Protein 1
Amino acid sequence: MPKRIDFTLTTEQDNELGHAIRADKRPEVRQRATAMRLLSRGNSPKEVAEVMEVSEATVYSWRRRYAADGLEGLANRPKGRPQRKADDAYLQELEVTLEKEPEELGYEFAIWTVERLRDHLAAVTGVHLSTGHLRVLMRTHGYVYRRPKHDLTNLQDQEAKAAAQAQLDELKKGRQQVITGSSLWTKPR
């Protein structure tokens, strides 16, 4: 047998509901507060549903919402799309971050990936986006992802590079064609 739900109210809750019925500007709150008072006065959820012209499940839902959130739980919830997570502050931080190299921000990698950028922005702003959402956001704000060109200049020994360049320049200056023996690919003079 299902557990019986207790619909009794404290004096404070009953007074709060009575005030809401008389003075609240939101009609849905007045209707639902009336339903809560009817339940507390001994009416069954089925009877309250008939009086209010709603389903019995709706009455139970109102009761759960009132028990969880009080009077504000009886108000309509916002409809439509949720608020944007990526607000102006997030977009500003995205722009500032993309103008810097990851190494400037203390990271050991040299290239921003979407995952790395998302994790960094989440740590800085507290806003967590999916990588797909971040890609769309970047595209709509004019950012283009390009594959990096592999460049090893940061790993080169500059002294050895300069010495090799000097040696190459010397070889180019004193360039002589040296022919050693005959081969299939050269003609003897």
Protein 2
Amino acid sequence: MGKKSGGGSKSKSSSGGGGGGGGGSGSDEVVVLDSTNFDALVMNSKDIWMVEFYAPWCGHCKALEPEWAIASGKLKG
């Protein structure tokens, strides 16, 4: 997996996600993606990305935020 994990729905990515809503989980491996940086960071990258698309109001999405942060750390590099 590249070095980053993110999600998106506002489009976050977070991912977060992290993943959940809003500002990510505090992990420096979670990158917040949106319409201004998605192409440059993900689509134009040679790295492999794991992207979570989420709805900030979704309880299931929010509940997975810690799991995305853990996965990003384990898959780093």
Protein 3
Amino acid sequence: MEKQLDQSQIDSMFAGVREEEACKQAAHAAVDQASVRERYNFSRAGQISNEQLQAISAVNDLFARNLTHNLGAWLRTRFDVALASAEQMMY
């Protein structure tokens, strides 16, 4: 069974799609305008925040503990690894 559409039904389908696209574009424009309100600080370009530094330190500390355990077990001797410091160096 073939379903045939007349021109008014086809036009209404295209109009519905156009309305959905217009609503999506308006929503994206509103989000874009709301999220670009923060000024960029060029003096801190390339620097990481304290929260990021804490996360990096936590990951490195976990790595050091796992390395201590696994390498010590593999070598069958006492082996210690500890995170000395975490800092950002400019180059």
